[in-house]
Each structure stands twice: as C-alpha cells, then as structure tokens.
Design a protein that fits this description.
Blueprint lengths: L11 H14 L3 H13 L1 H17 L6 H15 L6 H14 L8 E6 L9 E4 L4 E6 L5 E4 L4 E4 L6 E13 L8 E5 L2 E5 L3 E6 L3 E8 L2 E5 L2 E5 L3 E6 L5 E4 L2 H4 L6 E8 H9 L5 E4 L2 H5 L1 E7 L3 H10 L4 E4 L4 E5 L4
Parallel strand pairs: 1-3, 6-7, 16-19
Antiparallel strand pairs: 2-5, 3-4, 4-6, 5-6, 6-9, 7-8, 8-11, 9-10, 10-13, 11-12, 13-14, 15-17, 18-19
Length: 332
C-alpha cells in the first residue's frame, strides 16, 4: 500500500530529515503533494527543511565516522540487490542527517542592492561571484535577481527601462508600465515585456528565456517569438531555437537556493553544480557521465551532492589538491 505520510517523528527536525531521505528515492507527484502539505502545515517545518541543506553538506566531513560508514554499507548492499529501501533504512539515514543538523552554512550567499539613479552618466554595473546571488530593486518597482557568476548593466533609467545581461543568469520581475516597455538584451538578442516575470540565461554556447507569468517577445536578427507562461525558449550554438514546456516552480527554484533535476545525465548535473562552487566536479568515465538521476540539491553544496552519490553507491569521489573532485564508478 502506498503511504504518503512521513515516517513517525517527534519533532520538525526529525520529520524534515525523513522527508529528505524519502524524496531522494521517490520523485512522483503523489509524494511531492504530500511533502508540500507537510511543508506548509507549520512554519517550523519549513525552518527545519532549510537546516537539512547544512546537515547534508556536513555529512561529507563525517563520511569516515564508523557509524556512518556502516550505515552507508548497509544501504549500498540493498541498492545493489535491487531491493526497495525499507522504512528502517530510511530512518537510519535520517538519523545520520539529524546527527549533523545545525552546522554548515550554505555557500550560496545573497545580497540586496539599490537600482541605478535616474540621469546618472554611464551604466550601473552589478556582478555576483561564483556562488553569489544579488537582488537589485529598480527605480520603477521592478526587480532583477542575479544568479551565480553573473553581470548585468543598467543605463539611464529616466530614458529607458533597459538592462543588458553580459553573462550568467538573471530573473526579472517587471512592474507594469504600458508606456515604457522593459527590455533585456543578451548577446544581441532582446526580450521585451510590459509587466511579467521571466528568466534569461546566457552561457558560452547556449542561451534561454523562461517565462513564469505574463507574456514576452523575443527577437534575434529577423526572427521573433512570443512566449506564454511555462514556456522556455532555448538556442544552442547556431541551431534554430526551440520552445519547450517547463514546470514554472522549477524555473525559479534557483532563487531559493535549490537545483532540481529530472532524469538528467550525471554529466549535465555536475556541470550545473559546478556553476555554484569553486570546488569542481569532473567525471572520469563516459558511462557514469550518462547515468541519469533525479533529485533536489542545494546550490553550491558540492560536498553534499558528492556525499549523496557515495552514500547511495552511485560513484566514488577522489579529491584532488586543486579542489577538483573526480567521480569514478564504484569499485574502480
């Protein structure tokens, strides 16, 4: 019988730990709905859930403790046999998380800044370091949130509501003003909106626009497209752009310091995790890089992600002197 209730626990910290373990193994809509119900039942639940990120990060530091090594070994044996993780094992894994709750700060740091001053000479430049996030309050009531390793520039706000994304990724919550369209330029392409919420990302060989609400028009050369909420426009290299459907909640997950993956190759996941951390993952085996995984992880929490891979018997990490973590197949 499917049981969507969390395992029995005496407090929010214990319940949060048990939910964390469960969601690493179950990713269906039924489990997600039950989790969201629990999360919003009590403010203490949300606070306890936030603690889990730090606890999971610290698990990497305690990986060689005898009790943790024994728990990992038991879990790995069950997974290799193809058996389902029993409730006792989930409770044991949750206990490991509870043992380290309260320590470890997130490396994904946030700041807030004021927007450009009307009439000032030259552009106002905003930048974030690797693992940083910056919210900028614009003079018209709009807001732009810069993700990790991002740079944007704003011109004279009294003349035009215009932002240039130089690199990285930014989310825009646009205040309505029909007389003054809001324009974002990224590598010669423009996204225009009147009042809406959207995300623009610019990588070396790829760019994308995610629309969360409202409507936007995207232009590149002679091509143009209008997006509806829940749509992503993406273009890789010289290829024609594509418009895909996406979950709106996932589009904005990074603003809460979360990264969400659904059936994606480990190589892609590692690349995304690397954006948020000075410690970098590399994969030494082509087959391992293609292994598909699903999960939710803290942005910048590379050690916690590696600890999860090791705990579940998915990969063996080798830590190099330059802060590179090489992932190898188990047993090699």
């Amino acid at each position: 019988m499917n049981d969507n209730r969390p395992l029995h626990a005496c407090n929010a910290d214990a319940e949060a730990a048990e939910w964390f373990v469960r969601l690493q193994r179950q990713d269906g809509p039924e489990a997600q709905a039950a989790f969201q119900t629990w999360l919003h039942e009590d403010p203490a639940n949300a606070a306890a859930w936030d603690k889990i990120g730090g606890a999971w990060s610290r698990l990497g530091e305690l990986a060689e403790a005898p009790e943790i090594r024994a728990a990992r070994a038991d879990l790995q044996r069950e997974l290799r046999r193809g058996q389902k993780v029993r409730r006792q094992r989930m409770a044991a894994a949750a206990a490991v998380l509870l043992a380290v709750i309260g320590g470890g700060a997130l490396s994904y740091q946030s700041w807030r800044a004021a927007g450009p001053v009307a009439g000032q000479a030259g552009p106002t430049v905003y930048r974030t370091p690797v693992g940083g996030r910056l919210a900028v309050d614009l003079p018209d009531g709009s807001q732009v949130v810069l993700n990790t390793d991002t740079e944007v520039r704003a011109g004279d706000w009294s003349k035009a509501r215009a932002i240039t994304l130089v690199r990285g990724e930014a989310f825009f919550q646009v205040a309505k003003d029909p007389q003054r369209p809001f324009t974002v330029t990224a590598d010669g392409r423009t996204v225009t909106a009147l009042g809406t919420a959207f995300n623009v990302r610019l990588d070396s060989d790829r760019w994308s626009v995610d629309l969360l609400e409202g409507r936007v028009r995207v232009r590149s050369g002679g091509a143009a497209a209008e997006l509806s909420p829940g749509e992503r426009l993406v273009q890789e290299g010289p290829q024609s752009w594509r418009i895909l459907r996406r979950d709106v909640a996932e589009m904005s997950a990074w603003r809460d310091g979360r990264l969400v993956f659904h059936d994606q190759p480990l190589g892609e996941i590692a690349d995304e995790m690397n954006r948020y951390s000075e410690a970098k993952l590399q994969i030494a085996d082509a087959g391992l890089a293609q292994a598909k995984l699903s999960g939710r992880f803290r942005a910048g929490d590379v050690e916690g992600f590696v600890a999860m891979l090791e705990a579940y018997g998915l990969a063996t990490p080798v830590r190099e002197a330059d802060r590179t973590i090489t992932l190898r197949p188990v047993g090699r």
